[in-house]
Amino acid sequence: MVALPSLRGLQAFEAAARCGSFAAAAEELSISAAAVSQLIRTIEDQMGRKLFHRVNRSAVLTDAGREMLPRLTTAFEEIGSVSRELSGAEFRSRLVVSVPPSMAMGWLSTRLASFVASHGAVDISLRGEDDPVSFDRDPIDIRLSYGRSHYRDQATEDIVRDAVYPVCAPLMARGISDLEGAAAFARLPLIHTDWGPTGASFPSWRRWFEAAGIESSRASQRGLSANSSRAALDLAISGLGVALAQGVFCAEAVEDGRLVRPVAQALELRQPYCLTIPQRSLRRDVVAAFRQWLIDECLRSVGSPALITRPSADQ
Fold it and tell me: Which of 72, 98, 143, 182 has the most beta carbons within 10 angstroms of its beta carbon?
């Protein structure tokens, strides 16, 4: 019979790999970081495989470690489930969700209650952060991104391609008619979105005017500027100008009348929204359930009838 490696060592490895650091694993297991390191070295010696590359003060999973992690996570979750069932303790799944900051502020955060209501008890950590994120360093279960180029070595899927729509407060839209169309925007304050030097290129007002067949002018460069889609949308709701807003963000505000679409011209985004799930999380039931729920929510917003049928500007 083949001798089994130390169960405590396997537990230390799984916690360190899932949590992203020896220190975080030590806190979870109520032991010291040095003890975590020693337990992992012990099973590395027992198995004859290196599970982490130790570089300076950081530790990065080896290929062998990446292969082991999802199977061990599943095994320890099953052991924990059996233990809780025998003791009568309530089970709460853990889920770490990473999204762009604008998604975390006001869009996803207001919708999570419906997932919890349908799925049951779950401890969710919602992280708003820019791409790229580190799946080796951070215990992320699922990542929503704009574009798929950041995570070519992970399981990534396109879920929806959105568009941007000119939106503004109803009072500002009064007097704009389809006869004037985009030309009327030359006299209105415009709200620009700039994702910064490291972000993808957000559709500009200059590009929107060109798509509408209107010669671009200096008006397309003037106005307010925000460095997040959510902030630009809030400025528009406050009546400070006309913003180009993604459908996924503005659909609800158009549906309830806080915003209107003064003209019909829209611009499709150049890249789709994508979901990335690391190998260690692919077989977790709570991740699969959240993946489908999140896809449905994105499709529901992007496909909102309010974005398909434009209300008249004088409503």
Answer: 143
End-to-end CA distance of the chain: 78
Rounded Cα distance, 176 and 178, in Å: 7
Q: Taking residues 113-138, what's their average pLDDT?
A: 88
What are the tokens at 117? 């209501």
Burial of 62 (0-12, 13-18, 19+ CB in 10 A): middle
C-alpha to C-alpha distances, 39 to 17, 34, 92, nearest whole angstrom: 13, 9, 27
Q: Is 55 exposed, middle or buried (0-12, 13-18, 19+ CB in 10 A)?
A: exposed
For residues 305 and 259, give the distance between their C-alpha atoms in angstroms, rounded to a whole number.
Answer: 14
What's the predicted TM-score (pTM) here?
A: 0.70
- Most confident by average pLDDT, 35-39, 95-99, 102-106, 122-126: 95-99
Indicate whether 139 pLDDT > 60.
yes
Confidence band for 199, pLDDT divided at 50, 70 and 90: low
Q: What is the pLDDT of residue 111?
A: 93
The total of other beta-carbon atoms located within 10 Å of residue 243's CB is 29
Structure-token pair, residue 67: 């292969």
DSSP class of residue 58? E
Compute CA distances 310 → 39, 163, 165, 297, whole Å.
Answer: 62, 14, 10, 21
Q: How far apart are CA 220 and CA 188, in angstroms?
A: 10
Averaged pLDDT score across all residues of the chain: 84
DSSP 118-186: HH-SEEEEEEE-PSPP-TTTS--SEEEEESSGGGTTSEEEEEE--EEEEEB-HHHHTT--TTTGGGGGG
Name every residue whose Cβ is closer than 8 Å to that of residue 210 and which is 6 or more positions away in sequence: 216
Give the Å distances, CA to CA, from 49 to 17, 36, 39, 44: 15, 17, 14, 5
Q: Which two tokens stand for residue 305?
A: 């009838």
